[in-house]
Amino acid sequence: MLINTNIRQASTLPGSFYRDKAIFDEVKEKIFAASWLYVADVSVVKNPGDVYPFALLPGVLDEPLVLVRDRDGMLRCLSNVCTHRGKVIVEEASSVGTMLRCGYHGRCFRLDGSFKSMPEFGQSEDFPTAADNLHQVPMREWMGMIFVSLKPAFDFEEAIQPIRERVGFLPTDTLLFEPEGTQDYFVNANWALYCDNFLEGFHIPFVHPALNEALDFKQYDYELFRYCNLQIGIADEGQPHFDLPPGQPDFGKKIYAWYFWLFPNLMLNFYPWGLSLNIIEPLSHERTKVRFRTYRFENQPFNRSENQLEKTELEDEAVVESVQRGIQSRFYQQGRFSPTMEKGVHHFHGLVAEFFG
Ligand code: FES
Ligand SMILES: [Fe+2]
Fold first, then answer.
1. Mean pLDDT confidence for 30-47
2. Where do you find CATH 3.90.380.10 in the chain?
3. What pTM, to 2 d.p., does this model score?
4. Beta strands per DSSP E along the chain
């Protein structure tokens, strides 16, 4: 799979990338296992001894992991699979004392994942070794959120640095989770089609009439970084916008929203009222779960109906599902990019090709 780096000459990913189950199986390992994935908010493991088990990308990577906060307050992500015969150790979120105990034959681990004890192993030779410890998985915290990667192919801090620089002036440490604006959507389409659609504002006048009213489409802009990119929505007359401090890169512009995308599947949409996080989780090569999570700044009211997020989402789902049907066609191979409006899609396709090797 090759994507020409010159957008004026490049063609899009082939239709088979979205259609083919065998390619999707490669995507799991080459893209999802190699990237940083959002797991949960730090609040799920607030206190010392808190444990939170989860499967990373259920049904796709399906890796059993557990977040553990030790007695000193240190947070880790460990393999949740017992090193004896492989039972899942922590079955539900709870608070533990000073260790994790496997419920099958009683093997115990300290909260840093190291082997502690095991009944009936007194006669075993060469035991325990490092292989008896729980594997520790790379984990990062950012804006109250937890990200993990099974075998990271890139540095998390480097990837998010452009986002930090842009929104660093916002009180992101005061973001409050808002259940009102939080919902899962299920889309009958390949996950990458959902991302392609997000990555261009080209379709806004055609697909989102209400959003188009709020934005000054002529000033819609794109910026590309190494592992993330940004779309800048400029507010039309009379529409809400950020109050920017001098020195902020967009100072002087009326920013309606910054739409960030972090490779491969996370969208961070910053509005004057807060953050709308969209996590695009493949369920199979043709079905995708889209998780919308809303966070608002302290003292900023969130009004679900005013924000049109749901209306826009349903409009997006309809076109993405239509593309999913369209690319099954015998006559569709691949397309070309608009050099002005599809820079973000081209960036994404280039990264996909790079990770595919
Ligand atoms: S599988 Fe965990 S103690 Fe045997
Ligand atoms: Fe859209």
1. 98
2. 162-356
3. 0.96
4. 37-41, 50-56, 63-69, 75-79, 94-95, 99-101, 108-110, 115-117, 136-137, 139-142, 145-148, 176-177, 183-187, 221-224, 228-234, 255-262, 266-271, 274-284, 287-296
Regarding the domain delimited by 162-356, which CATH topology (the fold level of the hierarchy) does it fall under?
Naphthalene 1,2-dioxygenase Alpha Subunit; Chain A, domain 1 (3.90.380)
**Ligand 1 atom 4: the closest Cα is on which residue?**
105
**Would you say the C-alpha torsion 234, 235, 240, 241 has a positive or negative sign?**
positive
Superfamily of the domain at 37-142: Rieske [2Fe-2S] iron-sulphur domain (2.102.10.10)
> Which residues of the chain form CATH 2.102.10.10?
37-142
Model confidence at 47: pLDDT above 70 = yes
How many A from CA of 204 to the centre of ligand 2?
Answer: 6
Ligand 1 mean position, distance from CA 292 (Å): 37
- The verdict on the CB of residue 82 being under 6 Å from ligand 1 is yes
pLDDT tops 90 at residue 304: no
Query: With a 6 A CB cut-off, is 87 part of the ligand 1 pocket?
Result: yes
Is the per-residue pLDDT at 223 higher than 90?
yes
Nearest to 143 by CA among 42, 244, 258: 42
C-beta of 116 in contact with ligand 1 (< 6 A): no
Ligand 2 centroid–CA 300 distance in Å is: 25
Over residues 75-106, the pLDDT tens digits come to 999 999 999 999 999 999 999 999 999 999 99
pLDDT value, residue 56: 98
Question: How far does the centroid of ligand 1 lie from the alpha carbon of residue 33, in Å?
Answer: 26
